[in-house]
């Protein structure tokens, strides 16, 4: 359920009455917990937050977060513990054991299949279908996953341990775990598991599992349909031995195979660490310290990103630069970060003697001058369109243009309209003989240009009134001419790029940008460019009531940055940009 990112709807502090109700529900859902355990788990003096989220499939889930760690989540009016809570109370739920390689598949969103379950000597725990269960690894009693039993224990036995065992809801290292402090499972020894792993029976079971996987692969390679539930289940499990402790791969082929197994998040974490090491080793000088963390990212880390890759902290497991640097400081002691002024962090010290940093080799093919946003490079050849206002002949004024062979729907430049009307007036001898600045109104001009109340009153009009009234009764349209493309004519008036600032929950500001498509701009490129320029999240949302259009939403008041991008980089004329006056006067993001 949490194998993909979720969307936070609200985050509020729980009320006293709701806290008491939660304690009662917790006591009812987990009878093994005593009132003292619950009081220790949810102390009254600690701030408890209720976070409502939407999972990637749209499920509404409620999280209960204490000290930044989600302890419980509520789905369909039922409470489930997270791994953070189970690490404090590992015996809270019935436990199913599995092998460590299986964990990676569970993290990826797979359910726990019965062939991957290790059956202890005491037998499987007694559960009914739908009961909440936890999953542990051999040799460690610390749970790594939470789920619901797909079948009862008796059915598992009758199925000869084939098929689906647990519907997995939450795992260690998924996005719910990442919502907390990202701590690792504690080491809780399990004597029986140790004996089991050292036994010949364990080796045999693993070999049998690998044999079953090979059989499934062979069947699929010959185009046969795999109907055996054991094979189907084993396809979803990784039962091959990991080689993390065996050193580097012996060949380039094995290295590529390992890279393919990495998730996008793991790849971004590795790229982030590589750029961090590269920047410290070859970019940062001692004379530059203290160095603003934002400057370190923008001027040093981005420039160390290899060509063809894009560094995006939002796609890493850290999400924020501050969290990444905190780990680098507390766990590895590469740098020391300090808040020299309120809300502004700086790197004040770098340990260049650190063995890991000294042993790091700077990649040879790193493009130092690579810009952080590849899309900006792609858009270097962009030229703004030439926009011309045109007028389309309407049914009302069509009689004035018939002499020029212009029928209803014909598009004309304002100068052409002026020329045709002038010819019409002169050809019909409507110029006033006493004052050539006036035009005599004939029946055709009367029907085309005058209102009903003016029929009996107006006999003459000035030339400017004739032209303005004619244009006012025609349909306005505009022509877009992009370099190297055929002209495009569209109805109505040209819409300016609209920049606005809106408020979201907790009085947070967001900047909205609309109508980029009119000017041939890609909203996705604009969003990505702004995201890296201001280091704030940016998303695309559909425009209500407008088909095939999206708006860019970026966190904070970024009107000034948006204006600079459109005016200086894309050279859009100021008259076609609306809302530049809404920039934050203080120059700070709100």
TrEMBL record:
Region (Disordered): 183-221, 243-265
Biased composition (Basic and acidic residues): 212-221
Xref: InterPro entries: EIF2D, eIF2D_N, eIF2D_SUI1, Pre-PUA, PUA-like_sf, PUA_eIF2d-like, SUI1, SUI1_dom_sf
Keyword presence, Calcium: no
Keywords assigned: Cytoplasm, Initiation factor, Protein biosynthesis
One Gene Ontology term of the molecular function aspect: translation initiation factor activity
Name of this chain's protein: Eukaryotic translation initiation factor 2D
Native organism: Oryzias latipes (Japanese rice fish)
